[in-house]
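Quick start: load a record and inspect it. Here is ABC transporter permease:
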Amino acid sequence: MAPLWLRRLWATPTGAFGLIVVALIGLTALVALFWTPFDPQSSTISDRWLGPSWPHLLGTDDTGRDILSLIMAGARTTVFVSIGAGVVATVVGIALAALGALTARWLRETIAVLVDILIAFPVLLIAMMISSVWGGSLWVVIWAVGIGFGVNIARVTRPELRRVQQSDFILAAKASGLTPAQSLLRHLLPNVAPVFIVQLSWSMAVAVLAEAGLSYLGFGASVVEPSWGLLLADLQRYIGVHPLSVIWPGLTITLTVLALNLLGDALREATDPTLRHRRAETHTPGVVA
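Running the structure step on this input writes:
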Protein backbone atom coordinates (compact mmCIF):
# COMPACT_ATOMS: atom_id res chain seq x y z
CA MET A 1 0.00 0.00 0.00
CA ALA A 2 1.20 3.50 -0.85
CA PRO A 3 2.34 5.72 2.04
CA LEU A 4 -0.24 8.09 3.50
CA TRP A 5 1.55 11.20 2.24
CA LEU A 6 1.63 9.80 -1.29
CA ARG A 7 -2.11 9.08 -1.21
CA ARG A 8 -2.76 12.62 0.02
CA LEU A 9 -0.49 13.97 -2.71
CA TRP A 10 -2.33 12.02 -5.41
CA ALA A 11 -5.71 13.17 -4.07
CA THR A 12 -4.97 16.84 -4.88
CA PRO A 13 -5.23 17.99 -8.54
CA THR A 14 -1.99 20.01 -8.36
CA GLY A 15 -0.15 17.15 -6.71
CA ALA A 16 -1.37 14.60 -9.27
CA PHE A 17 -0.47 16.93 -12.16
CA GLY A 18 3.01 17.63 -10.79
CA LEU A 19 3.64 13.96 -10.03
CA ILE A 20 2.56 12.82 -13.50
CA VAL A 21 4.59 15.44 -15.39
CA VAL A 22 7.74 14.95 -13.28
CA ALA A 23 7.42 11.17 -13.65
CA LEU A 24 7.03 11.50 -17.43
CA ILE A 25 10.11 13.74 -17.66
CA GLY A 26 12.12 11.28 -15.57
CA LEU A 27 10.91 8.32 -17.65
CA THR A 28 11.70 10.17 -20.88
CA ALA A 29 15.22 10.91 -19.67
CA LEU A 30 15.70 7.26 -18.74
CA VAL A 31 14.45 6.00 -22.09
CA ALA A 32 16.59 8.55 -23.94
CA LEU A 33 19.70 7.02 -22.39
CA PHE A 34 19.11 3.96 -24.59
CA TRP A 35 16.77 4.99 -27.39
CA THR A 36 15.45 7.98 -29.32
CA PRO A 37 13.42 7.84 -32.56
CA PHE A 38 16.38 9.34 -34.46
CA ASP A 39 19.94 10.31 -33.68
CA PRO A 40 19.51 13.76 -32.03
CA GLN A 41 22.66 15.11 -33.70
CA SER A 42 22.08 13.54 -37.11
CA SER A 43 21.22 16.09 -39.82
CA THR A 44 19.33 15.28 -43.01
CA ILE A 45 19.11 18.35 -45.24
CA SER A 46 16.39 16.82 -47.40
CA ASP A 47 14.16 16.52 -44.29
CA ARG A 48 14.57 20.11 -43.04
CA TRP A 49 11.46 21.92 -41.75
CA LEU A 50 9.10 18.98 -42.00
CA GLY A 51 5.84 19.53 -40.14
CA PRO A 52 4.51 17.15 -37.48
CA SER A 53 3.93 13.87 -39.29
CA TRP A 54 5.07 10.28 -39.30
CA PRO A 55 7.85 9.44 -38.51
CA HIS A 56 8.82 12.95 -37.28
CA LEU A 57 5.99 13.42 -34.79
CA LEU A 58 7.04 16.97 -33.81
CA GLY A 59 8.65 17.89 -37.12
CA THR A 60 12.27 18.75 -37.88
CA ASP A 61 14.50 21.82 -37.55
CA ASP A 62 16.55 23.82 -40.05
CA THR A 63 19.14 21.06 -40.45
CA GLY A 64 16.68 18.16 -40.61
CA ARG A 65 17.14 16.96 -37.02
CA ASP A 66 14.14 15.31 -35.39
CA ILE A 67 12.72 17.71 -32.75
CA LEU A 68 11.17 14.92 -30.64
CA SER A 69 14.55 13.19 -30.41
CA LEU A 70 16.21 16.47 -29.43
CA ILE A 71 13.62 17.07 -26.68
CA MET A 72 13.99 13.52 -25.37
CA ALA A 73 17.78 13.85 -25.29
CA GLY A 74 17.46 17.27 -23.66
CA ALA A 75 15.41 15.68 -20.87
CA ARG A 76 18.56 13.80 -19.82
CA THR A 77 20.37 17.09 -19.38
CA THR A 78 17.45 18.64 -17.50
CA VAL A 79 17.12 15.74 -15.06
CA PHE A 80 20.89 15.64 -14.50
CA VAL A 81 21.07 19.37 -13.76
CA SER A 82 17.96 19.48 -11.55
CA ILE A 83 19.01 16.48 -9.44
CA GLY A 84 22.60 17.70 -9.20
CA ALA A 85 21.52 21.19 -8.16
CA GLY A 86 19.06 19.68 -5.67
CA VAL A 87 21.80 17.60 -4.04
CA VAL A 88 24.16 20.58 -3.78
CA ALA A 89 21.37 22.82 -2.45
CA THR A 90 20.43 20.18 0.13
CA VAL A 91 23.98 19.81 1.47
CA VAL A 92 24.66 23.56 1.50
CA GLY A 93 21.25 24.46 2.94
CA ILE A 94 21.25 21.90 5.75
CA ALA A 95 24.86 22.67 6.68
CA LEU A 96 24.31 26.44 6.86
CA ALA A 97 20.96 26.06 8.64
CA ALA A 98 22.41 23.70 11.24
CA LEU A 99 25.43 25.92 11.84
CA GLY A 100 23.19 28.97 12.05
CA ALA A 101 20.77 27.40 14.52
CA LEU A 102 22.63 24.91 16.71
CA THR A 103 26.04 26.46 17.37
CA ALA A 104 27.44 29.18 19.61
CA ARG A 105 25.97 32.66 19.34
CA TRP A 106 28.98 34.25 17.62
CA LEU A 107 28.98 31.56 14.94
CA ARG A 108 25.18 31.78 14.48
CA GLU A 109 25.39 35.52 13.91
CA THR A 110 28.33 35.12 11.52
CA ILE A 111 26.40 32.54 9.48
CA ALA A 112 23.32 34.79 9.43
CA VAL A 113 25.36 37.71 8.05
CA LEU A 114 27.03 35.44 5.48
CA VAL A 115 23.66 34.12 4.32
CA ASP A 116 22.26 37.67 4.00
CA ILE A 117 25.26 38.66 1.87
CA LEU A 118 25.10 35.62 -0.42
CA ILE A 119 21.33 35.82 -0.88
CA ALA A 120 21.70 39.31 -2.38
CA PHE A 121 23.30 37.85 -5.53
CA PRO A 122 20.89 36.39 -8.11
CA VAL A 123 21.53 32.76 -9.03
CA LEU A 124 21.79 33.45 -12.76
CA LEU A 125 24.27 36.27 -12.17
CA ILE A 126 26.46 33.97 -10.07
CA ALA A 127 26.35 31.33 -12.80
CA MET A 128 27.30 33.85 -15.49
CA MET A 129 30.19 35.16 -13.37
CA ILE A 130 31.50 31.63 -12.80
CA SER A 131 31.03 30.78 -16.49
CA SER A 132 33.04 33.81 -17.57
CA VAL A 133 36.00 32.46 -15.56
CA TRP A 134 35.70 28.68 -15.88
CA GLY A 135 33.76 28.47 -19.14
CA GLY A 136 30.19 27.38 -19.72
CA SER A 137 29.25 23.86 -18.66
CA LEU A 138 26.49 21.96 -16.92
CA TRP A 139 28.62 21.68 -13.77
CA VAL A 140 28.75 25.47 -13.55
CA VAL A 141 24.95 25.57 -13.62
CA ILE A 142 24.68 22.82 -11.00
CA TRP A 143 27.08 24.48 -8.55
CA ALA A 144 25.75 28.00 -9.10
CA VAL A 145 22.09 27.02 -8.65
CA GLY A 146 22.91 24.59 -5.83
CA ILE A 147 24.87 27.14 -3.81
CA GLY A 148 22.46 29.97 -4.61
CA PHE A 149 19.37 28.06 -3.56
CA GLY A 150 21.19 26.32 -0.73
CA VAL A 151 21.52 29.77 0.81
CA ASN A 152 17.76 30.32 0.32
CA ILE A 153 17.02 26.98 1.97
CA ALA A 154 19.28 27.87 4.89
CA ARG A 155 17.59 31.24 5.39
CA VAL A 156 14.10 29.69 5.50
CA THR A 157 15.02 26.54 7.41
CA ARG A 158 17.18 28.19 10.11
CA PRO A 159 14.33 29.92 12.02
CA GLU A 160 12.26 26.73 11.80
CA LEU A 161 15.11 24.77 13.34
CA ARG A 162 15.40 27.36 16.11
CA ARG A 163 11.67 27.13 16.77
CA VAL A 164 11.60 23.32 16.90
CA GLN A 165 14.73 23.31 19.05
CA GLN A 166 12.77 25.00 21.85
CA SER A 167 10.08 22.30 21.88
CA ASP A 168 9.60 20.09 24.92
CA PHE A 169 10.39 16.85 23.09
CA ILE A 170 13.75 18.25 21.94
CA LEU A 171 14.60 19.25 25.51
CA ALA A 172 13.59 15.75 26.64
CA ALA A 173 15.81 14.24 23.94
CA LYS A 174 18.76 16.31 25.16
CA ALA A 175 18.07 15.19 28.74
CA SER A 176 18.09 11.56 27.60
CA GLY A 177 21.63 11.96 26.29
CA LEU A 178 21.18 12.52 22.55
CA THR A 179 24.03 14.40 20.94
CA PRO A 180 23.26 17.52 18.84
CA ALA A 181 23.94 15.54 15.65
CA GLN A 182 21.57 12.74 16.70
CA SER A 183 18.92 15.26 17.69
CA LEU A 184 19.30 17.00 14.32
CA LEU A 185 18.85 13.81 12.31
CA ARG A 186 16.13 12.17 14.41
CA HIS A 187 13.96 15.11 15.44
CA LEU A 188 14.86 18.50 13.98
CA LEU A 189 15.16 17.72 10.27
CA PRO A 190 11.97 15.58 10.08
CA ASN A 191 10.01 18.41 11.70
CA VAL A 192 11.24 21.04 9.23
CA ALA A 193 10.99 18.71 6.23
CA PRO A 194 7.78 20.28 4.80
CA VAL A 195 9.39 23.72 4.58
CA PHE A 196 12.59 22.20 3.23
CA ILE A 197 10.76 20.18 0.55
CA VAL A 198 9.05 23.25 -0.90
CA GLN A 199 12.35 25.16 -1.10
CA LEU A 200 14.06 22.15 -2.68
CA SER A 201 11.37 21.80 -5.35
CA TRP A 202 11.79 25.50 -6.17
CA SER A 203 15.55 25.06 -6.44
CA MET A 204 15.06 22.22 -8.92
CA ALA A 205 12.60 24.33 -10.91
CA VAL A 206 15.08 27.20 -10.97
CA ALA A 207 17.78 24.74 -12.06
CA VAL A 208 15.67 23.80 -15.09
CA LEU A 209 15.15 27.48 -15.95
CA ALA A 210 18.80 28.32 -15.28
CA GLU A 211 20.09 25.53 -17.50
CA ALA A 212 17.73 26.51 -20.33
CA GLY A 213 18.43 30.24 -19.91
CA LEU A 214 22.21 29.93 -19.62
CA SER A 215 22.37 27.48 -22.52
CA TYR A 216 20.24 29.92 -24.52
CA LEU A 217 22.77 32.67 -23.74
CA GLY A 218 25.76 30.43 -24.41
CA PHE A 219 26.87 29.98 -20.78
CA GLY A 220 25.39 26.53 -20.13
CA ALA A 221 25.57 23.30 -22.10
CA SER A 222 28.11 23.04 -24.89
CA VAL A 223 26.91 22.80 -28.48
CA VAL A 224 27.58 19.05 -28.55
CA GLU A 225 25.25 18.40 -25.58
CA PRO A 226 21.48 18.14 -26.05
CA SER A 227 19.69 20.95 -24.25
CA TRP A 228 16.23 22.50 -24.36
CA GLY A 229 17.80 25.95 -24.05
CA LEU A 230 20.13 25.38 -27.00
CA LEU A 231 17.24 24.01 -29.07
CA LEU A 232 15.15 27.07 -28.22
CA ALA A 233 18.04 29.38 -29.16
CA ASP A 234 18.47 27.61 -32.51
CA LEU A 235 14.77 27.69 -33.40
CA GLN A 236 13.80 31.17 -32.18
CA ARG A 237 15.52 32.74 -35.19
CA TYR A 238 12.86 31.16 -37.39
CA ILE A 239 9.85 31.91 -35.20
CA GLY A 240 8.32 34.17 -37.85
CA VAL A 241 8.52 31.45 -40.51
CA HIS A 242 8.13 28.22 -38.53
CA PRO A 243 6.47 29.22 -35.23
CA LEU A 244 5.27 25.71 -34.41
CA SER A 245 8.82 24.38 -34.05
CA VAL A 246 9.55 26.85 -31.22
CA ILE A 247 6.45 25.85 -29.28
CA TRP A 248 7.69 22.36 -28.40
CA PRO A 249 10.87 23.19 -26.40
CA GLY A 250 9.21 26.25 -24.84
CA LEU A 251 6.17 24.23 -23.79
CA THR A 252 8.36 21.47 -22.37
CA ILE A 253 10.34 23.91 -20.22
CA THR A 254 7.16 25.64 -19.03
CA LEU A 255 5.39 22.42 -18.07
CA THR A 256 8.45 21.05 -16.25
CA VAL A 257 8.96 24.20 -14.15
CA LEU A 258 5.22 24.48 -13.42
CA ALA A 259 5.03 20.81 -12.39
CA LEU A 260 7.99 21.10 -10.00
CA ASN A 261 6.51 24.17 -8.32
CA LEU A 262 3.04 22.64 -7.98
CA LEU A 263 4.52 19.37 -6.75
CA GLY A 264 6.44 21.19 -4.03
CA ASP A 265 3.34 23.01 -2.80
CA ALA A 266 1.30 19.79 -2.86
CA LEU A 267 4.06 17.91 -1.00
CA ARG A 268 4.02 20.52 1.73
CA GLU A 269 0.27 20.12 2.17
CA ALA A 270 0.58 16.33 2.17
CA THR A 271 3.39 16.20 4.74
CA ASP A 272 2.59 19.15 7.04
CA PRO A 273 -0.27 18.23 9.43
CA THR A 274 -0.51 21.74 10.88
CA LEU A 275 -1.12 23.20 7.43
CA ARG A 276 -3.90 20.69 6.75
CA HIS A 277 -5.51 21.44 10.11
CA ARG A 278 -5.44 25.19 9.45
CA ARG A 279 -6.96 24.69 6.03
CA ALA A 280 -9.67 22.42 7.43
CA GLU A 281 -10.55 25.01 10.05
CA THR A 282 -10.72 27.69 7.36
CA HIS A 283 -13.22 25.68 5.33
CA THR A 284 -15.32 24.51 8.31
CA PRO A 285 -18.60 26.47 8.37
CA GLY A 286 -19.34 28.26 11.58
CA VAL A 287 -22.34 27.44 13.74
CA VAL A 288 -25.28 29.72 13.03
CA ALA A 289 -26.92 30.95 16.19
